[in-house]
Design a protein that fits this description.
alpha/beta; 10 helices; single chain; 301 residues; globular; TIM Barrel
């Protein structure tokens, strides 16, 4: 008969063995898991104030190993950097969103340079041009206000491209109803600064123009929407390693979460849908999109 103290010792050893086996099984599962990146999320938004650690944990459990938190002004960019310091798998992009143009300082570059020096800042942005809701289309708006608004957007966009060129970084591009002007403004920086045209919803012809400038496109959960046939045509046409995947969290949750708060873990659903459209395996898609991101964001380590 085994003494009680020995039985307790054996029980502890058995329990520890079970824990170790469980951890090893989890490690093997994670090692074999197909991984992706979320190259565009807004983790600093108040939508995540109550449960960000859970959001990050769910993303990791879904195989999303790197997340880029995108700044939309100086304060948002600073918050993105802070999150990158708190979470190993989170990186930051710093910039000023075009729809915030009127609140931007006259010269954004000095403050942006300070932010861009951080080791986990991988890009400048979100920047670009947005003509979707011009002042004239707002209540009480005037057509005369549209041109100054466009000019201020162009000014801060150009300043951000300049900083990107100085620091050897690329740009996260927002363009809405403004593709022609966006491409024109980027043209002088060809060979020095590339752009990833995030949340891309235009057709294959526009995509080809972007790729011909050595820039990339990126797709969100929109690709899963019933009314997004044009986006799916572009996904089918774009070569592997010429695009990335993103959520644009907290927006644009893919089916079956459409209408709910989006989060980085949903890249899993986006990737499964994109793989079907591309006719490739998830392994191939993972290798291609992660390689594209690693090449585009040199500091994404």
């Amino acid at each position: 008969m085994i003494p009680s103290d020995k039985r307790e010792q054996h029980s502890l050893i058995a329990d520890n063995t079970i824990c170790i086996q469980s951890e090893l099984a989890t490690l093997r599962r994670l090692t074999n898991m197909i991984t992706f990146y979320d190259t565009h999320a807004h983790l600093d938004y108040p939508d995540y104030a109550e449960d960000l650690p859970g959001v990050i944990a769910r993303a990791q459990a879904a195989g999303i190993t790197k997340i880029i938190s995108i700044g939309t002004d100086l304060e948002s960019s600073a918050r993105a950097i802070k999150l990158s310091e708190e979470y190993p798998g989170v990186f930051a992009a710093v910039g000023w969103h075009p729809t915030n143009a009127y609140t931007a300082p006259e010269d954004l570059r000095p403050a942006l340079r300070e932010l861009a020096r951080h080791p986990k800042v991988v890009a400048i942005g979100e920047t670009g041009l947005d003509y979707y809701r011009l002042p004239s289309q707002q209540p009480g708006g005037n057509v005369a206000d549209d041109e100054p608004y466009k000019q201020k957007q162009a000014l801060i966009f150009n300043q951000q491209i300049e900083v990107a060129a100085e620091f050897g970084l690329n740009c996260v591009i927002h363009t809405r109803s403004s593709l022609e002007d966006t491409l024109t403004q980027m043209q002088p920086f060809t060979g020095r600064v590339r752009g990833v045209f995030h949340c891309f919803v235009d057709g294959p012809a526009a995509m080809e123009r972007i790729l011909n400038m050595n820039s990339l496109v990126s797709f969100t959960g929109i690709v899963t929407f019933k009314n997004a046939q044009l986006v799916r045509e572009t996904v089918a046409a774009v070569p592997l390693r010429k695009f990335m995947l993103e959520t644009d969290s907290p927006y644009l949750a893919p089916v079956p979460y459409r209408g709910k708060r989006c989060e980085p873990g949903y890249v899993k659903e986006i990737s499964e849908f994109v793989a079907q459209v591309k006719g490739c395996s998830l392994e191939e898609l993972s290798q291609a999109t992660c390689a594209a991101a690693a090449e585009f964001f040199p500091k994404l380590k």
